[in-house]
């Protein structure tokens, strides 16, 4: 069974991330969406709120689970039995960074990486900008709060 980990970057408001998971399911049998928050960073939602919102997005899909984690991504991937890391990128510069990280993950942990480009319609919008707009009651194309689905 092929299992992948989609770490850290997933935001409950970003349809582009949903697209990455949906397309990733054509490559693997199961995906663990792994979420975390940097403890030194102020965030709009707590880890628990993010986990709850993201879990709602996938509650009808038994091939996707949502878990929070701390520490190194490769260690968590091993912990959940993932043989692959799934990454979404927005630009060719992101690809170069991910390629370097993928090489290290392969050498250190033996974990391969699938890199998928975010669909063009979603590639130019920052999640932090969207959260700010939503906090002021604005609607933003390309982003859907989990509680509105």
Explain what this protein looks like in three dimensions.
- By secondary structure, this protein is an alpha/beta fold.
- The protein has a 5-stranded parallel β-sheet with strand order 3-2-1-4-5, sandwiched between helices.
- The protein contains 5 helices and 5 strands.
- The chain has a single domain (3-144), classed as Rossmann fold.
- The chain has helices at 15-24, 47-57, 73-79, 92-109, 127-135; strands at residues 3-7, 30-35, 64-68, 84-89, 112-117.
CATH H-level superfamily: HUPs
Number of structural domains? 1
**Structural class, judged by helices and strands?**
alpha/beta
Rg computed from alpha carbons, rounded to a whole number of angstroms: 15 Å
List the secondary-structure elements in sequence, H or E: EHEHEHEHEH
Which CATH class is shown?
Alpha Beta
Query: Which CATH architecture?
Result: 3-Layer(aba) Sandwich
Strand order of the largest sheet: 3-2-1-4-5
Shape: globular
Q: Can you give the helix content as a percent range?
A: 25-40%
**In this structure, how is the largest beta sheet organized?**
5 strands, parallel
Number of helices: 5
Q: Gap between N and C termini, in Å?
A: 30 Å
Number of strands: 5
């Amino acid at each position: 069974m092929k299992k992948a980990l989609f770490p850290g970057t997933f935001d409950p408001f970003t349809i582009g991330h949903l697209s990455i998971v949906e397309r990733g399911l054509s490559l693997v049998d199961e995906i663990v969406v792994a979420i975390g928050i940097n403890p030194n960073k102020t965030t709009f939602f707590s880890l628990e709120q993010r986990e709850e919102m993201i879990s709602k997005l996938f509650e009808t899909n038994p091939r996707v689970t949502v878990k929070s984690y701390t520490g190194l991504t490769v260690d968590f991937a091993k912990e959940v039995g993932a043989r692959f890391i799934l990454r979404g990128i927005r630009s060719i510069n992101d690809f170069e960074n991910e390629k370097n990280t993928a090489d290290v993950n392969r050498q250190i942990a033996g974990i391969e990486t699938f890199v998928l480009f975010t669909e063009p319609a979603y590639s130019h919008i920052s999640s932090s900008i969207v959260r700010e707009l939503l906090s002021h009651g604005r609607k933003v194309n390309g982003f859907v709060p989990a509680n509105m689905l």
